[in-house]
TrEMBL record, chain A:
Keyword Transport: yes
Keyword field: Cell membrane, Membrane, Transmembrane, Transmembrane helix, Transport
Annotated protein name in UniProt: ABC transporter permease
Family per similarity comment: Belongs to the binding-protein-dependent transport system permease family.
UniProt organism field: Devosia sediminis
Spans through the membrane: 12-32, 73-95, 107-131, 192-216, 236-261
One GO biological process term: transmembrane transport
PANTHER family per the UniProt record, alphabetical: OLIGOPEPTIDE TRANSPORT SYSTEM PERMEASE PROTEIN APPC, PEPTIDE ABC TRANSPORTER PERMEASE PROTEIN
Recorded topology in the membrane: Multi-pass membrane protein
Locations listed in the record: Cell membrane
TrEMBL record, chain B:
Keyword terms, alphabetized: ATP-binding, Nucleotide-binding, Transport
MF GO annotations: ATP binding; ATP hydrolysis activity
Family matches, as PROSITE patterns: ABC_TRANSPORTER_1, ABC_TRANSPORTER_2
Gene source species: Devosia sediminis
Protein's name in the database: ABC transporter ATP-binding protein
InterPro entries: AAA+_ATPase, ABC_transp_ATP-bind, ABC_transporter-like_ATP-bd, ABC_transporter-like_CS, P-loop_NTPase
Biological processes per GO annotation: transmembrane transport
Family, as annotated: Belongs to the ABC transporter superfamily.
ABC transporter domain residues: 4-244, 265-512
Pfam family, one: ABC_tran
Superkingdom, natural source: Bacteria
Amino acid sequence: MNWQALRHNPSLLIGLVATLAFALLGVVSIWWTPYPIEQVAIAQRFQGPSPAHWLGTDHLGRDMLSLIMSGTLTSFVVAALGVLIGVAVGVPMGLAAGAWGGAVEWLVLRISDLTFAFPAVIVAILITALAGPGETNAIIAIGVFNVPVFARVARGGALAVATQDYVAAARLAGHGNVSIAWRHLLPNIMSLLIVQGTIQLSLGILAEAGLSYIGLGTQPPATSLGLMLRDAQSLFLIHPWLSVVPGLTIVFIVIALNLAGDGLRDAMDPRLRHQGLAHGAG
Amino acid sequence: MALVEIDDLTIAFSGRPAVAGLTLRIDRGDRYGIIGESGSGKSLTALAIAGLLPDSSTVAGAVRFDGAPLPEDERVLARLRGKRIGMVFQEPMTALNPLMTIGEQIEEAIVLSEVPDVANLVVPDLLDEVGLSPSHVGRYPHQLSGGQRQRAMIAMALASRPELMIADEPTSALDVITQRVVLDLIAEICKRRQMTLLFISHDIRAVATLCSRVGVMQAGRMVEQGAVADVLKSPQAAYTQKLLAASRMDRRPAPVASVEEQDLLAVMGVSRVYAQGGLWPWRDPPLRAVDRVDLTIGAGECVALVGPSGCGKTTLARMIVGLDSASEGRMLLDGVPYRGRDLPPGSRAAMSLVFQDPFSSFDPRMSVGTSLAEPLHLLGVMSREERDARLREAVEAVGLDASMLTRYPHEFSGGQRQRLAIARALVTRPRVVVLDEPVSALDVSLRGDVLNLLARLRAEHGLSYLIISHDLDMVAAMADRVLVMEAGRIVEEGRPDELFARPQHSLTQALMLARLPDVA
């Protein structure tokens, strides 16, 4: 991975720049938004785009741009924390499965089968029933959904790396499974994990939007892109603009993340890199 | 009349030439061999003749097939390839489609070649010609052995009755006995069909056995070409002379009278049994990969374990070094008994292993110095100065510079990596080093250097070696004692000169017969 890879791979560049732009938009909303998002001004509701309100106002007269900025932040934070939970729990599970094999591997695979069987929505409903709706619960639900994904990716990568001679050499040098997983397996599957992380981030943003839309995620007065869609749905025929803006934002973020993920995979996978040369070498 | 003419061919990848100014002429009926080490551009030359160069390459110069330049149009080119050029690749497992039976693949090749015969009538003849039986038609590639797969590839290449057959290292993935059989098969077919052959190899002896004319390539340039007899008898280019010298295996002098009576390593009745049959283990008898093997290695002795692939020699080596545990029997290293993985750390330091493939034996994300220091872990806590001193000593012993330790594996060539692998094996100052095919992944020109290094280290440090190999010449040059292994058992044992002069067991005889004749 270097700058040259970026230049040769325009989709990676576009994906990364767009992702960073959206993330920045969200981060800025922590300190500054054009209008406070709690500011309700019924007199100014349903305004179209204007110099005062670039993206117009919603049914409560709140500034749409401010809502989008804040909503993007919520979506990113929820999805990123969900991915983080998945990485923190799933990757050690997968590495353990790869390094020990046998009964440990069986256990890890059955646990991930079990978790796979519960979609994020079901987990979210379960958590909501127990603890009430909220962002934290959305994060936990998305995290639980991510754990088996990362466990399997880590295990698959670790199995491939574990057959290499340098892992055998480390065993001969007296290193145990933990040390081998940390020193050799993890660094060599890092690129796989980064690519998978990017893709899971986009899925997480979709999941957060979905959970907020059905009312299990972010609660007002905080906002998220899914919540904005939910608020706008009953007005869709009269004021389609209110649904189009958050909807398109979600679409663009997800496309940007997918472009970045695919681009990263191309840039990091040595088998795809220099395919021409490798083919004719000898 | 020339079948293939190449004029001043240059193939470059993003500005860097991989083949430069190559001129080549292959007459009809010639058997032309290209020798060169990996990266010398010999495979690219073959791909250029078949019009199969990757899109990322820029090509200058002319390639003429049968007097006409290669067609621009991809479909016409594909038809030319299908009808007039047959190709055999290095690794038949990846060149064959795993989802189609051998028969279907050969039939497909016949249909694509548009020869007006009925495919299913020709298939049996082709199979017969390459020495496969009709029962192989319905099998999938994974159900065949390496040699059988390569035969199937040759049958596919022959399907269109090509005028030119391109064989790119067709035997380097095969073991010695199969290699000889496949080479003989190719020679026989070329003679019978009067077919032109382009044979690519890094093994000068394979080329000498098979070809009538030879071209020597180095770093993308053709340094010498001519009739095989002339080139090999009086090589002009310095590189050819070096290659020829490297292909001769002279006996490395054994350190005098260093072999003590006492056994350093003893393997006693060791077996490794794998259960077969999955859910119904009683259906198939368990596979005895290693079957009640006894062997001893004296201090300072060099013992070689020889056998075809799949005979269990690598499994035995893995148990000896402690990567795997024996199902039965036990081993003694300097008086310490063990069964495999339970080898105590102190004893692990007294033994090390050099892997076959220098490219996978170093972690690409770790500096070479860190990799080399890993085994020092076995000697307990060590001060930084002592650690650095040990590393420097090991690296300098293999003829490399200590400043290289901060670099990463991809910056080194195969030969340097194998030296570093040997340095890693030495860093704990072991008494026994197990060498698993230590030079078979290296280019011929580098093998001599690495073997000299191993012989010197043995003399200087009083090491004992256990060499695992199928290369009889290398074994004859290095070993004090040779053990021949077949199907998990040791079938013959003796001093290399005596054993190879009068082989008793049928496997030893087969191995001797499969040896390619010496050049010059």
